[in-house]
Specification:
With 358 residues, the chain is an alpha/beta fold. Helix content is 29%, strand content 26%. The strands form four sheets. Strands 4, 6, 7, 10, 11, 18 and 19 form a seven-stranded mixed beta sheet that branches. A six-stranded parallel beta sheet has the order 14-13-12-15-16-17, sandwiched between helices. α5 runs parallel beside α6 and α5 crosses α11.
Length: 358
């Protein structure tokens, strides 16, 4: 079968091969035929080593498709079911799950160390234990979440990661208050979803911050009340908040420099929400006096900060009601052979979300 493979960490191009086999099918597993997958910045971060991932590997974790076969012991799924891929399934038994923090379950991460593909030359890993830049993949049954018939595969794929992450940051983690002021730093697919979440929560001002003009223009279409470049943020803070700072600032880049900018633009007593996935050696710094004196809440948000199954349902309900726009987030569509062009478009900021159709 065909798949896009990264041979070594640090390479910037994927090789589309036709000699890849999905392996590991058995009890508790399902085989999926991928129909659509989104290109998420986390895929690029894994390719360049910012996020830890063994290689060679197949990127992709934001996917949707159909069940081809189910292993022994799998209930609630059968061949032909339409599903989205959940890259962080909850085991239901660990301390995090028992506390109701299912999004912090580590069971899914453990899968990343087990190859779920092979080639004639050896084992191949799937990113985050999945790997959706491929025609078929074998995953644990908990990774396959049924979707209603009226949800297109490309929409379901986005809900599988970027939309859930961004919406959840505003709704679950920060719990944006009606009438508040919000700034979102980084307006790719996750940032746009954060803007939509803040709008759903009733924020009065939503300032989108991004160096790419096309992304600033897009942010306005998705609910931002103003869009500025990074060097215009100080002026926006002065005009909108009289210099006090925003009630909520979302960092959706994953770098300590932008996190520090976000902190400085959050009002005293306000909330800084860290959404971007960054490197382990990139350290955020704050002095002990400002932490105490300013009482700014620093809230990291992992995968939307809530039960992902409930978050999927909520995203579908909001989409059906026309409260969020997911179709327009897909700015580019490619086949698997065009994956490297799509990667370049993401790196330059030209695309919000690219849908890879398989």
């Amino acid at each position: 079968m065909r798949a896009a493979v990264l041979h070594e960490i640090g390479q910037d191009k994927l090789e589309v091969l036709d000699d890849v086999e999905a392996v590991g099918f058995g009890p508790g597993k399902v085989r999926l035929r991928i129909r659509a997958t989104g290109l998420c910045h986390s895929d690029v971060s894994a390719m360049n080593g910012v996020l830890p991932q063994p290689a060679p590997f197949i990127p992709g974790h934001e996917g949707a498709g159909e069940v081809v076969d189910v292993g022994d012991g799998v209930t609630g799924l059968s061949a032909g079911d339409r599903v989205l891929v959940c890259w962080l399934p909850a085991c239901g038994a660990c301390p995090s799950c028992k506390r109701g923090q299912t999004h912090l379950c580590l069971a899914g991460f453990m899968n990343a160390g087990t190859p779920n593909f092979k080639r004639p030359g050896g084992d191949v890993f799937g990113f985050a234990g999945t790997g959706t830049f491929t025609e078929e993949v074998v995953v644990g049954a908990g990774c396959a979440v049924p979707i209603p018939d009226d949800v297109p595969f490309e929409i379901a794929a986005l809900i599988g990661c970027g939309v859930t992450t961004g919406l959840g940051a505003a709704i679950n983690t920060a719990q944006v208050e009606t009438g508040s002021s919000v700034a979102v730093i980084g307006c790719g697919g996750v940032g746009i979803s954060t803007i939509q979440g803040a709008r759903v929560r009733g924020a009065a001002q939503i300032v989108a911050v991004d160096p790419v003009a096309s992304r600033r223009e897009a942010a306005l279409r998705f609910g931002a009340t103003e869009a500025v470049s990074p060097d215009e943020l100080t002026d926006a803070k002065q005009r909108i908040t009289a210099g006090e700072g925003f009630d909520y600032v979302f960092e959706v880049v994953g770098k300590s420099a932008t996190a520090r900018t976000a902190y400085e633009n959050t009002r005293r007593g306000g909330t800084l929400c860290i959404v971007g996935a960054g490197a382990m050696d990139d350290n955020f710094q704050a002095n002990m006096f400002e932490l105490f004196f300013d009482e700014k809440r620093i809230l990291p948000s992992m995968y939307g900060g809530g039960d992902v199954l409930r978050s999927y349902e909520r995203a579908i309900a909001l989409w059906r009601a026309g409260r969020i726009d997911l179709e327009s987030m897909i700015t580019h569509r490619v086949r698997l052979d065009g994956i490297n062009d799509a990667l370049d478009q993401m790196r330059t900021g030209e695309s919000l979300r690219t849908c890879v159709e398989l």
